[in-house]
Amino acid sequence: MTNQPINVLYVGGDREWTQLLTTVLEREETNIDLQTTPSVDRTRRIVARGNTDCLVFDCDLSRLAGIELLRSIRRGDEDLPFILCTRNGTEPLASEASSMGATVYRRQQTKTDQSVAAANLIRHIEIEQLRVRLKTVRRHNERLEEFTSVVAHDLRNPLTIASGSLELAMEDCDSDRLRVIERAHTRMKMLVADLLTLARDGTSSTNITQLSIAELCVDCWQNVDTTNATLNVTTDRSILADRNRLKQLFENLFRNAIEHGGKMVTVGTIDTGFHVSDDGPGIPIENRDHVFTGGYSTAAEGTGLGLQIVKQIVEAHGWGICVTEGTAGGARFEITGVD
């Protein structure tokens, strides 16, 4: 089922019935958070907070209060599942409850029957709400696919044409203004690539293999504009990871270190994982909680998405990441929970 519990509010004063309902729900291992109150006024306040998924009203508490509560709730929320339960119901009460917008009206002879019926109804509502959430996720994924399509084609194609035209212009004219345009094109290409990575990467890594940290880091270093920087790998440890995604993690951390002035980039192990450190100016304590937020960057040429991608890759592996100060005074990224 879903990790989020279904918040059920039971309005009634029958403790025995409440205990029976709780027992049935626990027996079926339904992910329910059951809250009880005998007060109609308090019920209105709780519902007004907006985190109630289902309301069960015991009409034996007060039939009139139940109908009035239903009417007032329906004025503000037409969709909240509202279950009216009674052991002494009548047809007129059932008809009125239905006309007022009750989701379900149940009349049972015993408390046990009533609690089982209510539990089954809540279970049904839980399944229906899960279906709604899944549909919402699918819609979001569809929109994400549309977005990646726009980025991949509608943005990349004109950028490719512009870059080609710029190359031809630079063959005929040596101009600082053209070099500014070239840098802008390069930055746009980086942004497009990072946006596609964020959009296309899933939430889990499935292509897991045994990888040597040292060998992978040496390979990654060749793909980064290292200028005058040096790589120092102090570990021969192997870990279980998705090669392509771990490769991108190292490349992004290497670029981040160099863009921020690091001349020595060190990769080593810690008790629960590994670290990537540099000897640059470091990251102020007050900024460390924000470095993984999209758009955060202090480098002139940075996209602000590199570290967000790093965090996404880390979480996809089920690891953790934090940033602290390295022994050389620069930034130190620690990846923990690594097998």
From TrEMBL:
Residues 7-123 form the Response regulatory domain. Keywords: Kinase, Phosphoprotein, Transferase, Two-component regulatory system. This is histidine kinase. It is an enzyme of class 2 (transferase). Its EC number is 2.7.13.3. It comes from Halohasta litchfieldiae. It catalyses: ATP + protein L-histidine = ADP + protein N-phospho-L-histidine. One of its GO terms (molecular function) is phosphorelay sensor kinase activity. PROSITE patterns: HIS_KIN, RESPONSE_REGULATORY. PANTHER family: HISTIDINE KINASE 1, TWO-COMPONENT HISTIDINE KINASE. The modification 4-aspartylphosphate is found at D58. Pfam families: HATPase_c, HisKA, Response_reg. Gene3D superfamilies: 1.10.287.130, 3.40.50.2300, Histidine kinase-like ATPase, C-terminal domain. Residues 150-336 form the Histidine kinase domain.
